[in-house]
Amino acid sequence: MTDQKPSSTRGLIGWALFDWANSPFTTLIVTFVFSVYFSLGIVGDEIRGTQLWGNAVSISALIIAVLAPILGAIADSGGPRKPWLLGFTALCVVGSAMLWGAGPEERFIAWALIWFVIANIGFEFGVVFNNAMLPDLVPHSRLGRWSGWAWGLGYIGGLGAIVVALVAFVQADQPLFGLDKDAQEHVRIVGPLAAVWLAVFVIPMFLWTPDRPRTGTPLAGQISGGLRSLSNTLGHLRSQSNIVRFLIARMLYTDGLITVFAMGGLFAAGTFGMEIEQVLIFGIVLNLTAGLGAAGFGWIDDWIGAKRTLLIAVAGLLISASGAVFAPTTTWFWIFGSALGIFVGPAQAASRSMMARLSPAAHRTEFFGIYALTGKATAFMGPALVAAITAATDSQRLGLSITLAFFLVGGVLLLGVREDVETPKV
Questions:
Q1: How many domains is the chain built from?
Q2: Which of 30, 344, 380, 395 is the most buried (most CB within 10 A)?
Q3: Which regions in the chain score pLDDT beneath 50?
């Protein structure tokens, strides 16, 4: 099970297409379109809308943080990851499609939030199992570039979905399928669009990408064995200071990223008065710069190492995010916001390759579950703090400024991590 041969190029392309397939969920729903529609179209108040959306992101992050290590350990005990991927992908598809029913009235607030939480859980768990496949598919010397290329492909996929949404629906004088603009159908169609995109483009991964063989362990044995393995791993983590330091550092700067993506569209709309069409155009630019950054830094990761790549990325995030949050004009917000994208992709891609290098082969899904836990353990705090500070100060700038602290502290902790130390077998 741990000696799987590297995949063919076709198998790797199938794996990378998972990022292309699921990225419209984050661009269209989490960040740039549906979140803004929820705040301005359903709630009708950007401050209260920011607070409610932040709370929904926090709830889903908390659920993921608790369950990801458990499910990862059980999956390692059973062998294949694809059955788990299929289940959580289906959950994301259904949840996204159901957002179509969230009409522009306050009575649809609960409907929108419930289905968003369900879809977000499916999305995030799918990422856990897809990430865990990477070190089984590619040699360590190429981890950085394939992780970066996949992230870059994901951002280009998000870009493509935004263009489709903008041209065919949001800005069209006569949206496709005769959608009713008065009922905001041309905006809430992004839910079904993200669902169809994911369902179609994830197919190559299931057809082409190899998976680990089954262990033959019955389900009850997988559960008990996975829980024992997780308990053993968590017990050993206390003595593995290097990976613990990396996980905590990554937890903090990722929390900053999650908060920026969850609240960025709301910030642009509320502070700079951007309409949904303008937010979409900003999303196109951000995805373009992020995709170029992820793909380009993939080579740098394999050249200078994941840690140095991460330090460059986190420093860039801190500087560009500071400029965007405190931008005096819309023009400066565009400049710093576009620059932010260059460092978003490398921060995510190099984190994945770093974890792939550090995790023991026999426990990769389990460790990527812990990786997801540390990416989500405080993730509920970022949006929650933004929501609370925004409500208390009536200022989206002050609310979103909390992300700067996450980037700063995470970068400082990252300085003490050694990337040439593989976590001992457990």
A1: 1
A2: 344
A3: 1-3, 424, 426
